[in-house]
Amino acid sequence: MEKKKISFQSLKGWLYLLPAxxxxxxxxxxxxxxxxxxxxxxxxxSASQTYFGIGGYNYSYVLHDNYFLQAVKNTFLLVVxxxxxxxxxxxLISVGLSSIKPLRNLFQTVYFLPYVxxxxxxxxxxxxxxxxxxxxxxxxxxxxTWFGGSAVDFIDxxxxxxxxxxxxxxxxxxxxxxxxxxxxxxxxxxQQYYNAARVDGTSKLRIFMKITLPMISPMLxxxxxxxxxxxxxxxxxxxxxxxxxxxxxxxNTIVGYVYDMLYGDSGGYPSYAxxxxxxxxxxxxxxTCINLLVSKKNVHx
Amino acid sequence: xxxxxxNLTKKFPSRDRKKREDVIAVNDFSFAIPDGKLIGLLGPSxxxxxxxxxxxxxxxxxxxxxxxxxxxxxxxxxxxxxxxGLVFQNYALYPHLSVKQNILFPLENLKGKDKLSKEEMLxxxxxxxxxxxxxxxxxxxxxxxxxxxxxxxxIARALVKMPRVLLLDEPLxxxxxxxxxxxxxxxxRIQQETKITTIFxxxxxxxxxxxxxxxxxxxxxVVQQIGKPQEVYDNPTNLFVAKFLGTPxxxxxxxxxxxxxxxxxxxxxxxVQGVADQDLYVGxxxxxxxxxxxxxxxxxxxGVEVMGRDISVISGHDALLGETIRSIxxxxxxxNLENATVRFALKPHKVxxxxxKTEERVQFGF
Lengths: 301, 366
Fold this sequence. Notes:
The structure holds 2 protein chains of 2 kinds. By secondary structure, chain A is an all-alpha fold. Chain A has 13 helices and 2 strands; from the N terminus they run αββαααααααααααα. Helices cover 76% and strands 1% of the residues of chain A. Chain A has a two-stranded antiparallel sheet. Chain B has helices spanning 49-57, 99-108, 118-131, 147-159, 177-194, 205-211, 229-234, 239-244, and strands at residues 3-12, 23-33, 38-42, 64-69, 72-73, 84-87, 165-169, 197-202, 214-219, 222-227, 251-258, 261-264, 267-271, 278-284, 289-291, 297-306, 310-316, 320-321, 325-330, 341-346, 351-355, 361-362. Chain B starts with a strand and ends with a strand. The longest helix of chain B is centred in the middle third of the chain and has 18 residues, at 177-194.
C-alpha cells in the first residue's frame, strides 16, 4: 500500500516534469548527441543521409583549416581582451554610480540603453562611425586626424583596427548588463560593514579590496563565467560590423565558422561544422572548469 | 575616559514634504559620563538613544552642541580619530573573514608610528579574544558561530585597539532570553576588567537596570532622568519614567487629594501631607500593595497567579487606567478566591503622585 502511494507520487512528479523534459529532450539533448555523432561520421551528406566511415578525420580537417585557426585566434583575442576589460570597467562605473546621488537614475538608464538596443542597428551605427569610404573618413577618423593622427579604415582596413572595433563594440554591448548586476550587488552590501570599517579607520582602498570586493565576489564571478561563455559564442557582433563574409574579412569567430560550414557560401558540411562545435564546447568546458577551480579560493558566498 | 556631552542636539530634515519642520532626534542633551562606568541609554524605540550613540561615535555630526572625551573636544573629529570601539546591533562581522582576521582588522589599519608588527598584532588579538573567551574559535568564520559567540567576537574586535570609550548598540537584542542573561553579565565583567567607559543602548529596561552603573532614560529626544538604576526606579521624576521602568509595570489610577488624604475612587487610601487638593495620577508599584483584611483600597478580585517565589494578585478597579491591577505579594499570604473583592493597604514609598497636566512628580510627606 505504502509502496504504491510512493510510485503514484513519483508518477505525478514525472507528469509535471514531462513538458519540460520533452521540450529539452527534442531541442537540446537530442541535437547535442546528434552533433557529437555527426562529428565522427566522415563525409556525411545531409541530402542522401550517407557517410563513408567513422573516425577523427573531421577534427583533423577542421584543425588544419586556416579559416578555423583564424577564427580560433579571433575568438581567443576577443575573450582575453573583452572579458577582463568589460568586467573591470563595469565595476568601476557601478562603484561610481553607487557613490553619486544626484541624477543616479538618469545615469543608470543611460548606461542600460545599449542592452535594449538592437545588435544590428548598433552595428550599423558603429560601421558609420568607424568606416572610411571614398567620400568620407567617418566620425572617428575625423577626431583622429584632429589630434594629428592619420585616418585608418576600421572596417575594411588592417587586422588590428578591425579587432579593435570588434572588441570595442563587444565591450560596449555587454557592459550594461554587468553594470546592472554590479550596482544591485553593491547596493545589497549592508551599510553597517562600511560603518564598522570607518570606525576602525580603514582606508577607502582597503575597504574596497577587503570588504566590497569579497562581498560582491559571487556576482562578479557569475559575470566572469557568463562573460567568458558569451564571448566564446560571439558571432552576431562580427556580422553586424563586417557583414556575412567573415572569412574574407579575417574576422570570423568559431561560431561563425560553424555557421559558414553549414549554410555559408562554402558550406554544406555538417560533419566539419559538428567537429568545430564540439571543439568549441571542449574549450568552453575547460575554461569554465578552470574558473570554478579559481573561484573556490576567491569567492565568498 | 570621561565623556562630556554639552547641549547636544541633532535634527534630521523631515521626509514629509508637506511638513517642513525638522525632526529633532536628540534635544539639548547635557551629561558628564563619569570615567570607567557602564552607562545604559534607555528609552522606547525612536527616542533618540541610538542617534545619541552615533553622535558619540562620530558616525553622525551633531546639529549643535559639543562632545568632549576628557579634555579633548572630539565634536569635529571623524570616528577613526576618536578612539572608540563600536559594537553594532547586528554585529557587522565581516562574513568572509575568520574570527582572527576580524579581530585583527582594526589593528591592520594602524599606520605610521602606531603600526604594529605581526607578532604584536597577534598577541593583542589573542588577548582580546581571551578576554571574551573565544580564543578557541579563532579560525572559524562568523557564520559558523552562535549568536552569543558572534556578539563576543564583535566586542573583541571593538576592544582590540583599547578604545577610550566602548559603545554598544542594542548589544543583546539579537540573542535569545537565556543567552541574553548570560551575555549581559559578561558585558558587565568585561567592562569591569577593562575599566573602559562603556555606553550601551537598549530599549529593555530590565537589561539596563541589571548591569548599568547609571541609566539615562530618554523620550522623544529629551532626557527624562539620569541616575543609578535603583534611584530612578524608586524615585521617578515623571509619569513616563515611572511607567517605563519595572516589570510588571506600575499600576496607574486616577486619584484625588482632598484634605491631605489621597482618594482612589471612594477609598481614602493614604495620608499625603503637603499636597494641595487636586485631581492627579497615582502610580503604585506592584510590590507596593499589602494584602490586608481591613485595608483601605478595595479592588475586584479577578485571579491569582502563583510564580513560586511570590504570587501576583490580579484585580480590577474603576479608577484604574489600564486593564488590571497587578500586585505582587509574598507566598505566605492566602487569597480567598471566593471573595469578590480584595483589600489592600499601601506602602507609602511605593506610591507616586503625578500632576494631571504636566505629568511631573508631586512629592508628598508621610
